[in-house]
């Protein structure tokens, strides 16, 4: 549904609850299922959509919803994430009562204590949240792609007088093993909650589907504060929202579900609510290429709900050469600023800022992160290329599964991840005549 009308207050309407709320974004995850893409960066810092990073989506949702107080808890390899927020999210003004705090795991409580779990990340920063002087806290995951108006969820939370309101969506039952799964009654109250069950239960009215948590929680701060302090004293707790705090609240009858369909933001072009956990190479590749569709599933051109990010100063994309076999062109593709297609043929691909594709090269269904250089006569199909990679002349990827798997990381569905260390190892072996065992190659 389009929530534009929900965002416009008429004269005399009650104040927006978002002005009394803060967003606490959990952005410390490694994202190991993204393999080498998170060797140098946390999952929320991974690039997405041509010029953004994944963290920009929850932050933009909060800002567009009217939330002007935010905190981002970081932990795993956080430098690129922190640098991105410092550059792209530095427009908050304290004199307007706007704040964005970056909260690295910094042993504030004990010298040997990092963030022990999602709840502990908030517990260790209780004093900082206290300083915001807010009524409500919205707990957000920093690694999902979607557009959502949190004001709608806040209003439901107040109307139901819930202890916690949990954002949820319906997913196929076989895909729900990585989610918290819940059962609700006719009033939307959650009567059972299972964190990442091996055999997720189906919905009563649709056994093939499960009601899954989005990792979005709304609390009254006073209630959550006491809950966190009690949890910190419990040595048997894993100090995690999904494993510990939420099941306890459900047991006491104070948890309610909020359906994503009621607060998703759609421009009118999207045909259904869009939410993606881009936590695997396949899902990351697919979600980026979704944007190349004639009518994309996620509309990034909706100026009424912009995805804020670091706006680099770049020259326009450039397409050069117009010979029959050497034409710089791109079809059904997104080409970012500072890209030069020099006699290269690009089809159904997404090229991030600063890419170079040289003469006679071909890219088909390729997601190429920033500052990639594709050499002459390279032929790449169904690839994800990490940033700052130099593709050698004549490299062919995507045509021979055995050869691809020998050098690169190839998923079961045939998507190939290419990083610079993989290419360096390949070059050293081919140029030096070195013979490597299967176990050594597996370390690629």
TrEMBL record:
Top-level taxonomic group: Bacteria
Molecular function via GO: ATP binding; glucose-1-phosphate adenylyltransferase activity
Pathway: Glycan biosynthesis; glycogen biosynthesis
Domain Glucose-1-phosphate adenylyltransferase/Bifunctional protein GlmU-like C-terminal hexapeptide residues, every copy: 315-418
Domain Nucleotidyl transferase: 23-292
Alphabetized UniProt keyword annotations: ATP-binding, Carbohydrate metabolism, Glycogen biosynthesis, Glycogen metabolism, Nucleotide-binding, Nucleotidyltransferase, Transferase
One Pfam family this sequence matches: Hexapep_GlmU
HAMAP family per the UniProt record, alphabetical: GlgC
Family: Belongs to the bacterial/plant glucose-1-phosphate adenylyltransferase family.
Name of the molecule in the record: Glucose-1-phosphate adenylyltransferase
Organism of this sequence: Glutamicibacter mishrai
Gene this protein is translated from: glgC
């Amino acid at each position: 549904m389009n929530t534009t009308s929900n965002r416009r207050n008429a004269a005399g309407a009650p104040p927006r609850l978002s002005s009394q709320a803060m967003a606490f974004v959990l952005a410390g995850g490694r994202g190991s299922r993204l393999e080498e893409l998170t060797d140098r960066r946390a999952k929320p810092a991974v690039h997405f959509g041509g010029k953004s990073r994944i963290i920009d989506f929850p932050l933009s949702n909060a800002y567009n919803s009217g939330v002007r107080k935010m905190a981002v808890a970081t932990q795993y390899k956080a430098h690129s994430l922190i640098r991105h927020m410092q550059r792209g999210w530095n427009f908050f003004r304290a004199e307007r009562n706007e704040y964005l705090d970056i909260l690295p795991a910094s042993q504030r409580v004990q010298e040997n204590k990092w963030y022990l779990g999602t709840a502990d990340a908030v517990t260790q920063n209780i004093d900082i949240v206290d300083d915001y002087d807010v009524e409500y806290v919205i707990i957000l995951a920093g690694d999902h792609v979607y557009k959502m108006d949190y004001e709608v969820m806040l209003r439901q939370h107040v109307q139901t007088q819930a202890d916690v309101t949990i954002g949820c969506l319906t997913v196929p039952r076989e895909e729900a093993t990585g989610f918290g799964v819940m059962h609700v009654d006719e009033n939307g109250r959650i009567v059972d909650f299972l964190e990442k069950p091996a055999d997720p239960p189906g919905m009563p009215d649709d056994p093939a589907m499960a009601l899954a948590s989005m990792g979005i929680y709304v609390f009254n701060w006073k209630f959550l504060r006491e809950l966190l302090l009690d949890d910190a004293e419990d040595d048997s707790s894993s100090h995690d929202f999904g494993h510990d705090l939420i099941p306890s609240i459900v047991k006491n009858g104070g948890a309610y579900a909020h359906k994503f369909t009621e607060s998703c933001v759609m421009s009118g072009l999207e045909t259904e609510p869009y939410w993606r956990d881009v936590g695997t190479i396949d899902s990351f590749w697919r979600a980026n290429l979704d944007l190349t569709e004639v009518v994309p599933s996620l509309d990034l051109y909706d100026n009424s709900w912009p995805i804020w990010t670091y706006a680099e100063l770049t020259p326009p994309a450039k397409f050069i050469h117009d010979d029959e076999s050497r034409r710089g062109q791109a079809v059904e593709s997104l080409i970012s600023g500072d890209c030069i297609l020099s006699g290269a043929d690009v089809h159904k691909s997404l090229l991030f800022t600063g890419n170079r594709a040289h003469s006679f090269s071909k890219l088909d269904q390729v997601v190429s992160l920033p500052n990639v250089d594709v050499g002459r006569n390279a032929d790449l199909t169904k690839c994800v290329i990490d940033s700052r990679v130099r593709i050698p002349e004549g490299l062919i990827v995507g045509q021979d599964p055995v050869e691809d798997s020998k050098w690169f990381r190839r998923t079961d569905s045939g998507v190939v991840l290419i990083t610079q260390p993989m290419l360096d190892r390949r070059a050293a072996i081919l140029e030096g005549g070195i013979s490597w065992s299967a176990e050594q190659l597996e370390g690629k």
